[in-house]
Amino acid sequence: MSTKQSTLGQLIAALGLDTENEWSHVVRERLVAYALLGLYVFVIWFPIYFIFITSIKPTSAVLDIPISFLPTQPTVSNYVEIFQNRPFELYTLNSLIVASTTTVICVTLGTVTGYSFSRYDFVGNKTLLLSIVGARMIPPIALIVPFFSIMSNPPLIGGLTGSLYDTRIALILTYTFFNLPFAVWIMKNYFDGVPESLDEQARIDGCSRWEGFVKIILPMAKPGIAATAILAFIFSWNEFVFALVLTSSEQAQTLPIAVSLFVADDFVDWAHLAAGGMIAALPGILFGLFFQQYIVSGLTQGAVKE
Amino acid sequence: MSTEKQSLRRKLDRLFVPLTVGPTMLWIAGIIVYPTLKLLWSSVFWTNPIDGQKEFVGLRNFERLIFAEGGSGTVFGLAPDFVSITWHTFVYVGLSVSISFALGLGIALLLDKDLKGRGWFRTAVIVPWILPYVMSGLMWRWMFNSEYGAINGILTQSGLLSSKIAFFSDGTLAMMALVIADIWVFTPFIIIILLAGLQNVPEQLYDAAEVDGAGKVSRFVNVTYPFLKPSILVALTIRIIFDIRALDLVWVMTQGGPGKSTEVWASWLYRTAQVFNRPGEGAALGVVLLAVTFLIVAVLYRVFGESPY
């Protein structure tokens, strides 16, 4: 009897039926997960694919019916033409100058201030930190009226600069408004994760606060600085509303504005718009592909309190 | 010499906090506090469009926007435009946030599994959020184009539909297009935040729940949710307040049209201040937007019972 039972057990085990269930359950779950993720990725990348093939179709072929979903006769003519017929090199330069200057200002101030907020319990520490959190919630668009009037007629520095309307300086100043509080916040949270014993060790070794910060702490903070810099750059590079309000010519207009200029009332020049859009999207795609972990950690540090 | 140097060092050390915090605070005062005060100030003035003269009008800008002046065609005493635009904003934000939250949570749970190629999927999933909103908006406008758009192409060339749909000629369909674009752009943000939150759930608790024979739903409610709650709160708060202020997608896709059927607060504010050149009323709308934002944050944090900082 018992031998018979064990033979049956052996048979089941040999056929892998007992473990098979467990195993196939796991496999099935994974296959479903892959299928769902694959479908999701396919659906969200399809529009990017479609605008990309639009950008490499001959200008006239964009309006062919039936629509071709494959890049027949691929060409770079749309890309060449936007640089020939429109000042795209100036738009790109403006975008680069505005985004990188904003990034340098915000990362520098954000790093030193974030460090002090993390380490020192000075008078007003809590209140100032709370004001930074509050500043992050202010909807930028609510302030287009005051920003327009301030930049057209700047107080204090107005005698020196004149109107800042349609200048890159106006955009840089404005973009620090949303990026600086964010930078302080990310860096504060990042420094909170750097052990304080390192500061103490530096003091014991005879470093001043400045030396300890620059020599010991700053090198530890590189990933946090990278995350802040990448996010500040992307936010400034992509910004549209204030560029729309504060600029009017190619001496300050950035790529998002340049792309929107292909829309003229009822007529849209889709082929060239697609090419311009791909150029504007390039840094984002590259950052996303190569520095994804910094974007994720920056956003997480910036959003979650600890 | 050396004592002199030391006393200088000590002096510089004492100035560490003022020197590192001071400039940032001055910068913030100039670039955030001053404009915000100026916003409040501008909201109580009316600017004559002809000679640019400003006239103090008290709260009349708010009255004009929120309450109808003449009293005809009002909805419970409120201006019809205010009511319909608030409704559009509610629909836009409500649909976009809830759908993208559900989708983002699902994808985050899938990506939290121990799958091969997880990093690759994560990268692929994040990209839409990093692209310029203008480019994304125009891309979707192109996708939904009534003649040459990919969506009409797929529907008609596959034989599913016999005639093409003019998405942007119909208020409801235009709103749907906007919501889809918004979900496409912002779901990655939800995924990132929730995925980070999922890392906080201790693995042993899942094992313990499994031993107790807890089903998937019960495991999510009892194990995952309590740990995920702070991340859910952050994701929802930021999503909602960013959607209320969002102009980019609406402006490049529909400009509030057809008619006023997709006009939301942000596009109304922009149109009032910049297109119609009525800075006083634009500023008044800015004040309303600011107040609503802080109100929403306060309510959300009260509901979830967490401290906002």
Automatic annotation (TrEMBL), chain A:
GO CC terms, sorted: plasma membrane
Localization of this protein: Cell membrane
Membrane-related topology note: Multi-pass membrane protein
Keyword Iron: no
Transmembrane annotation, as ranges: 31-53, 96-117, 129-149, 169-187, 225-246, 270-291
Domain ABC transmembrane type-1: 92-291
Chief localization: membrane
GO aspect biological process, one term: transmembrane transport
Keywords: Cell membrane, Membrane, Transmembrane, Transmembrane helix, Transport
Pfam families named among the record's database cross-references: BPD_transp_1
InterPro entries per the UniProt record, alphabetical: BP-dep_ABC_trans_perm, MetI-like, MetI-like_sf
CDD domains in alphabetical order: TM_PBP2 (cd06261)
SUPFAM superfamilies listed in its UniProt record: MetI-like
UniProt family annotation: Belongs to the binding-protein-dependent transport system permease family.
PANTHER family linked: INNER MEMBRANE ABC TRANSPORTER PERMEASE PROTEIN YCJP, MALTOSE TRANSPORT SYSTEM PERMEASE-RELATED
Name the record gives this protein: Carbohydrate ABC transporter permease
UniProtKB/TrEMBL annotation, chain B:
Main location: membrane
Name the record gives this protein: Sugar ABC transporter permease
ABC transmembrane type-1 domain mapped to chain residues: 86-300
Highest taxon of source: Archaea
Transmembrane domains' residue ranges: 15-37, 90-111, 123-143, 173-196, 283-304
Compartments, record wording: Cell membrane
GO cellular component, one term: plasma membrane
Membrane topology: Multi-pass membrane protein
Family stated for the protein in its record: Belongs to the binding-protein-dependent transport system permease family.
